[in-house]
Automatic annotation (TrEMBL):
<dbReference type="InterPro" id="IPR052157">
    <property type="entry name" value="BCAA_transport_permease"/>
</dbReference>
<comment type="similarity">
    <text>Belongs to the binding-protein-dependent transport system permease family. LivHM subfamily.</text>
</comment>
<protein>
    <submittedName>
        <fullName>Branched-chain amino acid ABC transporter permease</fullName>
    </submittedName>
</protein>
<feature type="transmembrane region" description="Helical">
    <location>
        <begin position="15"/>
        <end position="35"/>
    </location>
</feature>
<feature type="transmembrane region" description="Helical">
    <location>
        <begin position="190"/>
        <end position="216"/>
    </location>
</feature>
<keyword id="KW-0812">Transmembrane</keyword>
<dbReference type="InterPro" id="IPR001851">
    <property type="entry name" value="ABC_transp_permease"/>
</dbReference>
<keyword id="KW-1003">Cell membrane</keyword>
<dbReference type="Pfam" id="PF02653">
    <property type="entry name" value="BPD_transp_2"/>
</dbReference>
<feature type="transmembrane region" description="Helical">
    <location>
        <begin position="102"/>
        <end position="123"/>
    </location>
</feature>
<feature type="transmembrane region" description="Helical">
    <location>
        <begin position="42"/>
        <end position="64"/>
    </location>
</feature>
<feature type="transmembrane region" description="Helical">
    <location>
        <begin position="310"/>
        <end position="329"/>
    </location>
</feature>
<keyword id="KW-0029">Amino-acid transport</keyword>
<keyword id="KW-0813">Transport</keyword>
<keyword id="KW-0472">Membrane</keyword>
<keyword id="KW-1133">Transmembrane helix</keyword>
<feature type="transmembrane region" description="Helical">
    <location>
        <begin position="270"/>
        <end position="298"/>
    </location>
</feature>
Amino acid sequence: MDVILLQILNGLDKGSAYALIALGLTLIFGTLGVVNFAHGALFMIGAFCAVTLQKFLSLSHTVIDESQTDFLGNPLKVEKPYIMDWFGPEIGGGIIEWSVPLSILFAIPVMVAVGFAMERGLIKHFYKRPHADQILVTFGLAIVLQEIIKYFFGANPIPTPAPDALSGSIDLGVMIGFEVNEIVYPLWRMVYFAFAAVIIGAVFAFLQFTTFGMVVRAGMADRETVQLLGINIDRRFTIMFGIAAGVAGLAGVMYTPINPPNYHMGMDFLVLSFVVVVVGGMGSLPGAVLAGFLLGILESFASTTWATTTIPGINQVIIYLVAIVVLLTRPRGLMGRKGVMEE
């Protein structure tokens, strides 16, 4: 039972990233009808927002520390971050330590701006073009963004640690009646799952309970009728593109302590996230979230020693096998809507 619970937790952790990226993908497809193969790059840019802020906060200058000496008794020269000069050692050190959560405040305007620029500068010219054209141009954009990140940050992963207070492990087993140390899980992964749940809940609440969201949902169902009512639905859809970019960026920010950012991490998640969208049903927001968590859990169980020993390589293909089975039995996906991508 403890092994099963651990694998479920691992699946929820991985599924949270899938669900957040797939949610953004579905928002863009559901509102604009665009198959955005650059969405994984938005996840990557969000991760590098955290890297950028950490590097900025860690900018330092050389000072002489009288409390430390070399073997000759001379005071040592040490690097002291500027932020410690401005706020003091304790507060300055705390800001550097909590740079990943603070990156959320930095990433939101950056990602929304990137989303607006991407939609207004490129995507809007492909609204009425075939999906194949959309895939080619957004995939090309993803490669360009990937190479830009590689040029400025290098090809190697960049460790971006979580705050010390959230970097340990928590004994979940004791809380539910197991023995001590039977179910120990990294605390930051629990934070990531909770963060994903909040973001997903906020997006659904925004679409369900605000006037803006209701108009957007109406536009997703019948764009022409909404336009005939005198509502500028295109502007609202552009805003939704920015929101979708923000969701992907925040997913990347909070994922950095789990997987050190590298220039190809967007591509690593992109293909899997598209599979999640297809399994959940094209254009279905609940389907994207449900499929994200389900496939994350399945992939976690397929990665166990027993599974990989019994069927070597099953952890690499399980998601695609599930996608094949689902599409053979339910061609529209788990919660797909009639008429979407069926012309």
